[in-house]
## 1
Amino acid sequence: MIRIGNIELKGNVILGPMAGITTLAYREFMKPFGVALSYSEMISDCGISYGNAKTMDYAKTSEIDHPVGLQLFGSDIKNTANAIEILQKSAKYDVLDINLGCPVNKVVKAGSGSAWLKDVGALKAYMAAVCQVSEKPVTAKIRLGWDDQSINVFEVSKALEEAGVKMISVHCRTRQQEYSGHANYGAIKGLKESLGIPLIVSGDIFTIQDAIKSVNKTNADGVMVARGGVGNPQLVRQIDQYFKTGEILPDATPKDQLAYARNYASMLIRTEGEERAIKELKGILPKFFFGFPGHKKIRLAITTNMSSALDLEKIFHGVEESF
Ligand SMILES: Cc1cc2nc3c(=O)[nH]c(=O)nc-3n(C[C@H](O)[C@H](O)[C@H](O)COP(=O)(O)O)c2cc1C
């Protein structure tokens, strides 16, 4: 069982943070498939400090969302500490995560995200201060290192544990790789054994076989599902069930997929309103129909002909008729 400070998780599947995707509606939708812990998308510490309304929205959680972690990114402990204090007064969450892996130029140039991996001493001091301020257990999300020449995941993880971090998730790529190439699970072989806190493996978990391989190679305590779960929530159920019983559940049927898509769309419309939800669905919804006969036509209808909930229902109806 995974224990993060005083929190015990009921499973081993963690929903990875994804900017623009892991909204409250997405997390609520994914939870019943067997998500043991969800994370919000990355939230700017400065945005919280300035009371930016959109930023504060990212910190919204709900009853069924727990246990949930809010993920902050920042570069200066004064701003991060201030944001943590604001969140502690205004948000309901269970875990605080710090983003130490984001590869995006704008974020890195500001000294946040994976920029931290370049200076382990400064990182340790920053994270020790974060752990001091936070009333909630602190977790961290890292990458293997900055580039192939500076892989320092063992050193960084040790420093994070010594700073007081209670769980580490590793995206098994370097910053330089961004999302290219393959996740290198072999690079964290032995890391679990060198730590006294849980280790979560992330990167290229698209199938149940990927999840099994990642754990076999790393001995990690849990698996982080990110892109692979978008449009395929059954993946979470398969991994959860496998870890609990050894059974491999079948993939979802097209009928299941349609039902999941309908459910997710209505949850998103309910929480975000029709206009915003329809925009967001254009990116995510086609993934539910991947591999269906006529997938390209469905995708085209979603991306070009859908501007209201009524249009959406027509598309769903068309898919249903095609079974
Ligand atoms: C669109 C997108 C947004 C992401 N946003 C975040 C984020 O806000 N914070 C974070 O720590 N990781 C973020 N990630 C990284 C994922 O959590 C995950 O570690 C990465 O995608 C590797 O896993 P995968 O190959 O199974 O998707 C993001 C990834 C994607 C594709």
## 2
Amino acid sequence: MGQLEGKVALVTGGGRGLGQECCRIFAREGAKVVVADLVPEGGAQTVQLIKDAGGEAMFVRADVSSSADVQAMVKAAVDNYGGLDCAVNNAVRSVGRHSFAELSEEDWDKTIAVNLTGVFLCMKYEIRAMLARGAGAIVNVGSGNEHASAPGIAYYIAAKAGVLGLTRVAATEYGAQRIRVNAVGPGSMWTPLLRETAARDPSHVEFLQNLTPLQRLAEPSEVAEAAVWLCTDSASYVHGHTLLADGGAMLGSLSGYAKPGGPK
Ligand SMILES: NC(=O)c1ccc[n+]([C@@H]2O[C@H](COP(=O)([O-])OP(=O)(O)OC[C@H]3O[C@@H](n4cnc5c(N)ncnc54)[C@H](O)[C@@H]3O)[C@@H](O)[C@H]2O)c1
């Protein structure tokens, strides 16, 4: 018997990477899963993975920066599965690294639209569905970086810091209505994007590993386990929290002492 038997879970950006792993683990725990993504191919693959393992899932094409799409996405969960219990807001848009002076205003607008406004829109309509249900659990995906800094990704860190704020305010507003709101802060994960970077520039991975006390990068499933756990009753008193699943990377970033044999 899974920990989320009979529940309905929604994951944005569920077509690959961390989102796909969250979908897979929700299904393993017995939830019916709404896989939402901008790209139908990845979403269809996630649904197939879940069905092949005996689970239940459906795909909804949704751009999280569109209010109409987000409303239709949540409605699909309610119409097809009867309501919404759990949601992981995970979708992300990246435009690479650009210093402040070089970042175009267009790139700023389109990344903030997905990475910050998208999370707000998802939360707004997920919360409405959860209020109708009488309870719920939301997990926003941060990055860990919002607690520190990194060059060239102001648009990303600003959005993730905003997501932290949305998480805290929603937790304050909706705890009394039995909606728990938390965030997960992943360290660097072996997603397809990182594998491409690693093939081009192995020293980048070495750099990230050296910042991480566990001295390795995460498999997406290791972070997804934390995100799904936050939605289970095992986390029933965890609320307004950001759970770092980063191998201690934040300690390394802040202290510079992560590498064994590093500065004394
Ligand atoms: N990869 C890492 O090392 C890392 C580190 C820290 C935090 N994170 C965070 O983890 C989350 C997942 O990262 P990932 O590496 O798995 O990402 P990814 O790029 O592999 O997957 C993102 C998914 O989001 C979808 N998407 C993009 N724009 C969308 C939109 N407008 N509407 C709906 N879906 C959209 C994409 O199609 C894709 O399936 C993100 O929130 C990211 O910021 C990742």
## 3
Amino acid sequence: MKRIVAALALALIASCGDGPNTDDKAPDKSAPPEAAISVIGVDDLAERFVKLGLALGQHDANYVDAYSGPPEWAEAAKTEKKPLDALEQEALDILEALGVLARDGVDAREAGLKSLATAALTRIRLAKGERFTFDEEAALIYGMAPPVQDPAAFDQALADIDALLPGDGPLTERVNAFRNRFNIPAEKLQAVFDAAIAECRQRTLAHYELPEGEKFSLRFVKDKPWSGYNWYQGGYESVIEINTDLPINIDRAVDLGCHEGYPGHHVWNLFVDRDLRRRNGWIEFSILPLFSPQALIGEGSANYGVELAFADREKLDFEREVLFPLAGLDPAGAAKLQALNALKRKLSHAANYIARDYLDGRIDRAAAIALMEKYELATPERARQRLDFIDAYRAYVINYNFGRDLVAAHIERETAKGAEPWTAFEQILSSPDAAGALGAR
Ligand SMILES: [Zn+2]
């Protein structure tokens, strides 16, 4: 392990070691007391980062997504409640020390830690009231800004959807009237989600050996700005929450089962815990900050995981044969629903286009909702929920579409070289350095 000696200790050693025949190991009454020599290595910086993250969590309620480190560190963060100015200085100090370490070259762990600390520094500055543009925030927190798209890029997909669902009235209304035929009745939600998650798990187990005892529990909740959430509890256990504020379409069961569960967030958390934290002993992975480049891996892999686990035809067959009967729905329109969803995926980057203009102050809330109705074909209720999400999580939206594209591009690159897709996917899940793993540098 590389180590650096803190500047103070270096100065003290230099001042007492300049005579001829000086032996550092020999007792020397002019040598500094041992306590004055502080040796800083990447493990020390990783520990300081975890404590910084816990302290930031006291100001930024969404920052700590999961924590499985020493409970006394979490307690101390709560008791001390360090001010934001002190946290900003600590983030800068960690980055400076990492810069000293980097003189001997940077490995993936150190690159990852630097990106985690940079993201934390940016969230601290946001909490202090500093403002960044959407693209600056994306680059500082997630390691790269997403491509800027012309809304005309979405027009072809909208025209194709119009042709798929012809009729009178606005396209968004036609699309949602069609989709509403496939909403899961409330009393069938549990059975449909249990079956979907079990299938996602089986398909994942065909490729991965998961840690023994891994498990999740499923809860249905209300009044949230998201549609689903995985809360990693540590100990290879997750709580998956599904928001029932709005009707849940049958196509969301497999999507959420893969995204929140297998091979998405739950499996990602298992691998990070097993491989990075426990096997490698990298303490920085005892905290999962919501806002960091790791989110590109988290959301990108969770969305790509749906495609990895189910080829289009397989998803359609499974939904038609298992989920539609469980939900008591007529499977006659299943193929058309899937064709609609394939076209809607081409609109996924509209979220960045709208969030960028909204967060940069070029459009107001009403205009953002109108754009979501037009380009995301969202009902007004769904558009409001999505805008609540943007208010809470800001540039995080890029992780779903841009992250998915980066993960897909990695899998394509690796499979072109002969790799197996699930193996290439696992490399991403277990990477300590998102930007490096996703080919951004
Ligand atoms: Zn997610």
## 4
Amino acid sequence: MSQSRFLLKNISKAPKSLILGLILVFVLGIFVIGYDQGHIFSIVQGDTAYGNLWMHEFTHDLRHAAGFPCH
Ligand SMILES: [Zn+2]
């Protein structure tokens, strides 16, 4: 069996909930790395999170490396 046929056969057996979970993790990761401006921590900190930008500063170098606009 060729390698690509083997991979396609195994992917088709994956549960739909697993695929949905991976898509959600991917979308959340893209948001945190590329677009978060204090939104994540504002759930806990309120409006002060928009001034602190903890997650933005934590992922700042990765944001630039991935090509997302920043400043
Ligand atoms: Zn920057």
